Amino acid sequence: MPLAFVDMELLDENIHQILQRSKNIPIRIASKSIRCAKILEYIFNANDQFRGIMSFSGAEAVFLSQKGFDDILIAYPVTNGEVISDICKEIKNGKYINLMTDKLDHVHLINKVGKKHHVKISISVDIDMSVDFPGLHFGVWRSSIRKPNTLKSLLEEIKKMDFVRLEGVMGYEAQIAGVTDKVEKKWLMNNVIRSLKKFSINKIADKRKKAVEMIKAMGFDLKIVNGGGTGSLESTIREDVITEVSVGSGFFNSHLFDNYSKFKHQPAAGFACAINRRPSKNIFTCSGGGYVASGSPEKLKLPLPFLPQGAKLIKNEGAGEVQTPIIYKGNEKLQIGDPVFFRHSKAGELCERFNSLNLIRKNKIEIEVPTYRGEGQCFL
């Protein structure tokens, strides 16, 4: 210890629930939230409805392609020409890798590298799905394609290029998929967010539909119309233009995803730290544990003590780089060397801290498998 683990029986239950929530819509696995090739393989083998990977970097896409994965949509623009060259080599080997764009600069670079390697590269356009209210930008600052005229101008330029092939459109409704609406002791905020979500859903669907119609009207054949995330499956699958949804965090279900009103997945992954001190009767200090999640700083980004039940972080210390004290007044007789189990706030970032995952089934460790980090990879 510290060590990371996945409860495979709870992972199986989450897989089942995600399939049910997605109805019969194909599911692209968001690898950012997994970051372990063996777990990706496991999910793909669970059901044919899982089709393709949504990668978070070009180098990761090359890594996964070389490990045998295929049908990879890179969710973020690749601006490194050498990485695009590596992608071209994978395409020449018969792999399907699709690059994301929202600016003409992206497309020019992809076309230039494609020309150099005599490869026609598949691309997608990323449409901004945010909704603006008076004084509030409800969504994320992601794509520059916010208006129809911007999209049209980009499409006109793409048509002039010989080494790119527009085959996809993506729109990530982050304000639905990634914003919690059932946080404990935040009743007013929860209700405000639910109202904003409800008002946004139809606007999102209308924006995506019009974008798809424009792209098709300008002569492009779309293989991919991607949307959604773990937090928005119920609304995204209702859109007629959608060909697939993306899911990542729901498989491990980090504790941030406990705070949604529409679904309840199981805590399948986490980490354990050993108790190495007992400075007071009800205070146990663990070695390590300071694995704080990215994003705007708030209490929800801290690891959550999970077992023994009733353990809590100390407000003035939180989770520390080399030690994390907890308060525990329960019946378990904790000793020096015993584990305290935590859940990470965000799913994939857990694997950036550990070289391996211990896969547990029937209360026993079945096997230990490497994370990306354990395979010597660090993509961002």
Walk me through what this model shows.
With 380 residues, the chain is α/β, with parallel strands linked by helices. It folds into 2 domains: 8-253, TIM Barrel, CATH 3.20.20.10; 269-370, Lyase, Ornithine Decarboxylase, Chain A, domain 1. Helix content is 30%, strand content 26%. It has 10 helices and 19 strands. It has helices spanning 8-21, 37-46, 58-66, 81-92, 104-117, 148-158, 174-177, 187-217, 233-236, 249-252; strands at 3-7, 27-30, 50-55, 72-74, 97-101, 121-126, 131-133, 136-138, 164-171, 224-227, 244-247, 269-280, 283-287, 304-307, 312-313, 323-327, 339-343, 356-361, 364-370. The strands form 3 sheets. Strands 1, 12, 13, 14, 15, 16, 17, 18 and 19 form a 9-stranded mixed sheet that branches. An 8-stranded parallel beta barrel has the order 2-3-4-5-6-9-10-11, surrounded by 5 helices. A hairpin with a 2-residue loop joins strand 18 (356-361) and strand 19 (364-370). The chain starts with a strand and ends in a 10-residue tail after the last strand. The mean pLDDT is 92.
The total tally of domains equals 2
Question: Span between N and C termini?
Answer: 25 Å
CATH-defined architecture of the largest domain: Alpha-Beta Barrel
CATH superfamily caption of the largest domain: Alanine racemase
Largest sheet: 9 strands, mixed
Estimated radius of gyration: 22 Å
Mean pLDDT: 92
Percent strand: 25-35%
Could you say what the CATH topology of the largest domain is called? TIM Barrel
CATH class of the largest domain: Alpha Beta
Count of beta strands: 19
